[in-house]
User: Which sequence fits this backbone?
């Protein structure tokens, strides 16, 4: 059974200012599932809707963002949760940190800058479960942190005393104190150096392997997905372009956009000529008709300009939205 | 410009209210030109008559119609406020932009002058000046004097904005485009600073009119010219409240409140409108 | 080679910053005894690569004359930049050395039309006497980056894509017909599908316009793709430099090796080895103030001497490495020997 099912989700930003109203169709008709025990990667360029998608599935809906249609439901064991109709209180009390936790780019916002790291742990645990015995709690946290490969000293440090990579790893440790079933990692390594990035991603992989939970890893960096994710979804202009196991995405991509993304990546030791796509990602306030990629697609056909390609399953676990690809009767 | 007015009237309740209040003030301002009475003449109407249809705000103990007299007061106070605002804005912009962009010794010199003005005890100095210049004091001169004292806070505000703008890449782009400091200031920084200038203009106007009231109540301005301040001075001189002529105090107070509230709301809604972020959203960013 | 043959000659440059208050502040050496040079006649793309805090951005500011070195000299066309004092000399210098900045959306004021900058540049550097002739100069520069004046005139930055603005930014830099372009992370904020066109542009500039480019980046993959030579920076030092194939295909310095290994390959085949555990420093401050080699704390081959004295520059074939592993005697005695 899927941990999370998102069905036909559309979420728009509606703004009105001095009579000029705009609707940005940030997420448009997206359906996918997260399975227990996997690392699911979401890839896409800036303003492809991946950040909005995360906001919706983590229940962080604030105007002007509104869900237009679709459903987002979680299945935590026997317990099902409809994310679009849950109260903020329930979300805060029952789900956040305990079932779903969130790691974002630059962890400073979750760590209190004027308190030692252990105090931040105490604050979060205290509001959820209460801490009967501080000494024992410290030991538990220390064990938890050590198990994740972090030295005990970090707990008695202030955030500014730690390096960026260490802070990010502390934020991950914090996100996993309650062993949540889902960790949403939004560009967790984007501002970090490569060596540090590697350390942080290794930690995420280790945690996943240890506790068999699900990690939703969102990043624009395809190379990260190649090395970390089990399955990858490629988003383009608010829609899913392709979804497949990592091996297939990288070795046999079907969507022209995915193909371009993979083939345009430079690699050390290889200098063949790489090119960019023509044009630029579309403005989602006024998206192109038909396939949203058609203006930039090298294989564009007439049908692409008028008809939205459906997301079809070509093979077990491999879905593509492209008119070039015919549905494969399984 | 008309479109801006239309948009604001249509979509901003605050602006609508401010518009009504300020329209009333402007009407008073204009009515001064068709006033039946000369504000310098006394005993042209019955004394101490309460508000009525004949005398909208009543009459005072000097035999003047308070409404018509106040039309001149509003006109004079506003003109003085504008003089102050213009002079102090010009100084604030020049000092703020120059100190912020040029930096170095020029910044240090300008800012020490600036800070000297900030820490000066303004009211005693104004009282002293009012006393020394009492023979030649008129509203125009007072406006100019206030203009020379009203810029330092805003110059600092502008300077601090420029300091952050200076660190942004586009300033460096302009530098490496061979643009000199003057044009960088005008083209790159001024558009970001204008909202502050505008917001502080209205603040400054209010401050100027308010200070005039303070000085007049102390008898330190040109008492022969009608203004919101001198209105209160004369009412006080004649013991209006003791004599029960409450409308003599209430009328200028009411006009002052309408003017202040109108300007404040106007400033608040315009400020939001000309904020660069709003502007960016309007041009579709 | 005499100084006259060099376009840019950086000689033992050091930049120190005081951090902290008036009393008890500490000294941060952001750039430490860095030397390199670019040839006058042979345009090339030279990459300065390093992680955050390696000093690469400080070095770029130094080369743009935004900053002055604490010690050492930067010569441009044989002239010491420290002697460029008045505005007209600085303008002459800017005409020949132009920057391209990192964030396309910050490069131009959001409240100003982008073509205004192009015209400013053409007129200020006297590339054209009037606005009409300037339009031709601007058009020409835009054509070199694959754009036209029509596409950008009267446009605000937000009306263009990141890739387009970055191309406009390169076009602006080209207007004064510079000899050298300094590009500080020019593609790190550009979307992947638009990135390669910017990167390819620098190659084209080198080959067609004969402009040298100093490409400053943390991204070794694009560095490998476009550059001729590379210098790897660590905490203010250039620890390894040479032709990019040598340095990145067969890195010698243990730090370069670690860096290369850590770059995730955009292919799932290396997953296992990439996931091998590495050690990370807990705090950044410790490495700056470390005596001797800054990498000693993390180096798998660390020796006694590394912790004590700065390693010398060692010439290994076509490249220079700052590491005791390549000195003839990896002994304390080697400390004083200059290769």
Assistant:
């Amino acid at each position: 059974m899927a941990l999370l099912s998102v069905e036909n989700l559309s979420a728009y930003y509606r703004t009105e200012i001095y009579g000029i109203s705009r609707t940005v169709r940030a997420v448009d008709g997206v359906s996918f599932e997260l399975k227990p025990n996997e690392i699911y990667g979401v890839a896409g360029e800036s303003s492809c809707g991946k950040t909005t998608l995360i906001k919706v599935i983590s229940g962080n809906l604030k105007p002007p963002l509104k869900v237009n249609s679709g459903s987002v439901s979680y299945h935590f064991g026997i317990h099902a949760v409809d994310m679009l109709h849950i109260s903020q209180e329930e979300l805060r009390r029952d789900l956040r940190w305990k079932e779903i936790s969130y790691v974002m780019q630059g962890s400073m916002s979750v760590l209190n800058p004027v308190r030692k790291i252990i105090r931040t742990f105490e604050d979060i645990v205290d509001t959820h479960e209460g801490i009967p015995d501080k000494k024992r709690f410290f030991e538990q946290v220390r064990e938890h942190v050590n198990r994740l490969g972090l030295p005990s000293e970090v707990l008695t440090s202030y955030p500014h005393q730690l390096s960026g990579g260490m802070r990010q790893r502390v934020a991950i440790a914090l996100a996993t104190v309650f062993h949540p079933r889902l960790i949403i990692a939004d560009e967790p390594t984007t501002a970090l150096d490569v060596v540090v990035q590697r350390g942080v991603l290794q930690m995420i992989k280790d945690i996943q392997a240890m506790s068999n939970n699900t990690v939703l890893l969102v990043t624009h960096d395809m190379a990260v997905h190649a090395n970390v994710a089990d399955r990858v979804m490629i988003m383009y202009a608010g829609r899913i372009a392709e979804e497949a196991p990592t091996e297939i995405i990288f070795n046999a991509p079907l969507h022209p956009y995915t193909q371009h993304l993979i083939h345009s990546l430079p690699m050390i030791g290889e200098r063949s000529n790489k090119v960019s796509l023509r044009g630029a990602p579309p403005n989602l306030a006024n998206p192109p008709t038909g396939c949203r990629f058609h203006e930039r697609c090298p294989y564009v056909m007439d049908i692409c300009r008028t008809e939205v390609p459906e997301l079809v399953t070509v093979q077990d676990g491999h879905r593509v939205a492209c008119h070039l690809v015919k549905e494969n009767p399984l | 410009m008309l479109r801006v007015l239309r948009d604001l009237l249509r979509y901003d309740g605050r602006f609508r209210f401010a518009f009504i209040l300020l329209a009333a003030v402007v009407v008073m301002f204009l009515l001064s030109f068709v006033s039946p009475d000369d504000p310098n003449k006394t005993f042209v109407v019955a004394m101490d008559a309460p508000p009525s249809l004949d005398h909208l705000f009543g009459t005072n103990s000097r035999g003047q119609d308070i409404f018509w007299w106040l039309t001149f007061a509003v006109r004079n106070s506003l003109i003085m406020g504008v003089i102050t605002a213009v002079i102090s804005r010009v100084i604030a912009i020049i000092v703020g932009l120059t100190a912020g962009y040029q930096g170095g010794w020029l910044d240090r010199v300008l800012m020490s002058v600036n800070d000297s003005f900030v820490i000066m005890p303004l009211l005693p100095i104004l009282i002293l000046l009012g006393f020394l210049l009492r023979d030649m004091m008129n509203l125009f001169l007072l406006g100019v004097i206030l203009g020379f004292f009203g810029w330092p806070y805003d110059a600092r505000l502008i300077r601090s904005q420029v300091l952050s703008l200076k660190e942004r890449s586009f300033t460096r782009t302009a530098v490496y485009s061979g643009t000199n400091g003057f044009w960088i200031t005008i083209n790159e920084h001024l558009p970001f600073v204008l909202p502050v200038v505008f917001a502080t203009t209205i603040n400054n106007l209010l401050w100027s009119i308010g200070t005039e009231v303070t000085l007049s109540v102390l008898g330190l301005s040109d008492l022969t010219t009608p203004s919101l301040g001198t209105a209160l001075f004369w009412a006080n001189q004649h013991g209006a409240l003791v004599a029960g002529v409450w409308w003599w105090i209430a009328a200028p107070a009411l006009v002052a409140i309408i003017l202040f509230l109108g300007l404040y709301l106007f400033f608040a809604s315009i400020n939001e409108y000309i904020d660069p972020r709003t502007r960016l959203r309007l041009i579709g960013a | 080679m005499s100084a006259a043959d060099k376009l840019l000659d950086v000689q033992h440059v050091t930049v120190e910053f005081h951090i902290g208050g008036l009393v008890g502040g500490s000294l941060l050496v952001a750039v430490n005894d860095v030397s390199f040079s670019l040839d006058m006649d042979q345009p090339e793309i030279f990459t300065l690569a390093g992680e955050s805090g390696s000093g690469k951005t400080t070095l770029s500011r130094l080369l743009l004359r935004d900053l002055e070195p604490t010690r050492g000299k930067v010569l441009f066309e044989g002239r010491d930049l420290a002697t460029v004092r008045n505005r007209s000399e600085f303008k002459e210098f800017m005409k020949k050395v132009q920057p391209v900045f990192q964030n396309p959306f910050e490069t131009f004021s959001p409240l100003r039309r982008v073509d205004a900058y192009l015209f400013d540049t053409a007129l200020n550097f006297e590339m054209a006497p009037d606005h009409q002739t300037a339009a031709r100069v601007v058009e020409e520069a835009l054509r070199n980056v694959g754009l036209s004046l029509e596409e950008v005139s009267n446009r605000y930055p937000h009306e263009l894509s990141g890739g387009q603005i970055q191309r406009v930014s390169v076009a602006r830099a080209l207007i004064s017909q510079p000899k050298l372009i300094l590009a500080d992370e020019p593609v790190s904020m550009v979307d992947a599908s638009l990135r390669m066109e910017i990167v390819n542009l620098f190659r084209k500039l080198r080959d067609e316009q004969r402009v040298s480019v100093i490409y400053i980046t943390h991204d070794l993959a694009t560095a490998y793709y476009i550059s001729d030579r590379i210098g790897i920076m660590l905490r203010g030092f250039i620890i390894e430099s040479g032709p990019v194939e040598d340095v990145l295909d067969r890195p010698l310095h243990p730090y370069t090796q670690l860096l290369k290994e850590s770059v995730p390959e955009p292919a799932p085949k290396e997953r296992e080895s990439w996931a091998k555990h590495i050690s990370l420093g807990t705090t950044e401050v410790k490495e700056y103030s470390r005596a001797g080699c800054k990498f000693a704390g993390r180096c798998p081959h660390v020796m006694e001497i590394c912790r004590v004295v700065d390693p010398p520059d060692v010439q290994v074939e076509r490249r220079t490495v700052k590491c005791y592993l390549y000195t003839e005697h990896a002994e304390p005695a080697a400390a004083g020997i200059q290769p």
